[in-house]
Every structure is written in structure tokens, then in C-alpha cells.
Fold this sequence. Notes:
This protein is mostly helical. It has helices at about 5-20, 55-65, 75-80, 95-105, 110-130, 140-150, 155-160, 175-190, 200-210, and strands at about 30-35, 45, 50, 220-225, 225-230. The strands form two sheets. Strands 1-2-3 form a three-stranded antiparallel β-sheet. It has a two-stranded antiparallel ribbon with strand order 4-5. The protein is globular, with a radius of gyration of 18 Å.
Amino acid sequence: MLQLTPRQILTITRIVNVFETGSPEGDYSNISIFPDGPGDRRQITYGRSQTTEFGHLKELIQRYYDSKDEDTTISEHLVKFLPKIGIVSLANNTEFIHYLRLAGKTDPAMKRTQDQFFYDIYFRPAIDWCDSHGLFYALSALVVYDSYIHSGGMLPVIRRSFPAVPPVDGGDEKEFISQYVNARDHWLSHHRRKILHSTVYRTRCFLQLIRAGNWSLDELPILANGVKVY
């Protein structure tokens, strides 16, 4: 079973935060808008590790609203959009975007909610995937967690493109992760959505860590998209 130290968990989180918002600490108010929603619709991605409007943003806003000891102006402004989130694009709604930014910048409750949300929705399922497939190394956990954050999971279309299998099926962990990262790098760089081509800094970071043999992520700092992570 995968046993991560608090330091390894922090390093993994900080690296993915850099990938998503450019900061190891994460930018809780960060908003990006890309045409990567269903049918290539423009959608908001929001928060410390970026959840999407047509993904889990609705759940994040509901959790934020429910976490308040008493209603605030910010939460009241956001909760009224719940019936629309994930149904219609709010990428052009300046009021919604304003209050998302305001909550992330000024409300400690939003920051606490995001920390728990990204753990529950992305980090814990990624670690469960590692456990169920016999993965042991911290670098493997980083690769899987990043796949959950960026792609929603360990996509079958990528896994079918290389022969290595995980330890649970008799394979070698390092070989499996190495082939997976190379396959994901190719998938990102050749995807029909050209916006994904520029995200290969993620896989290039992992390939550098693999070449360096830094499977425990204990050789710091780690250079993540030009930012040093300690």
C-alpha cells in the first residue's frame, strides 16, 4: 500500500498547484476560461487546483455555501447560480466571475472548502487508484494525481496505447509509470484540442524526475514549469 509522508503529500500538492495556477501555494481565486467544455463550449476553471464549470464547480460552490456558519453576501451571490452551473456556460457572466474571485481572495471559508474539496474529489481517488493497482512510489502518486486533476483520471485511451501493465497485473511499477508518462506526453502534444499541446510541461517535468531517479520526490527543489518547488 502506498504510504506517503506529510512532506511527500505537500510536495505533490505544491507541484500540481504550480501546474494549475503558477504558484506552489495555489491561487484560490484563479479563474481561467478555455473552450474545453462539452461540445468545445467555453467554460470557467476555478480555484487552487482548477475545477471546471462542467465538472465539479457546482459541488464546490454548494460545499462553500454549506460550510458557512452564517450566510454572507458572497455565498448568497454565488449560490443563486447553482441551478445554472453545468447546464449553461457562465464564462461570460461577469457577476458570477466577480464573486468567485472575491470569495477566493477574501474568504478563509472558501480556502478551507477548496482544500478539503480537492482532497476529496481528486487526491483521495488518485491515491485509491494507486493502492488498487499496486503502486508504491511518491512519483507514481504525483503522476496519477496530476492525471486526475488535468484529465479526470487515468484515461483508458492513454493506457491502451502502451504495453506495460501495473504491478497488480504483474508489471514493474517504474516501467509502467515511465511508459504511461511518455504515452500521455504524446497524447497531449497531438490532441485535437490544440490548447492541450502547451500542457506538456506537466509530462516533461515527470520525465525529468524519472530520468533523475527521484521516485521518492525527496531531492528538492523540483523544477515545475520553471518554478522551484521546495
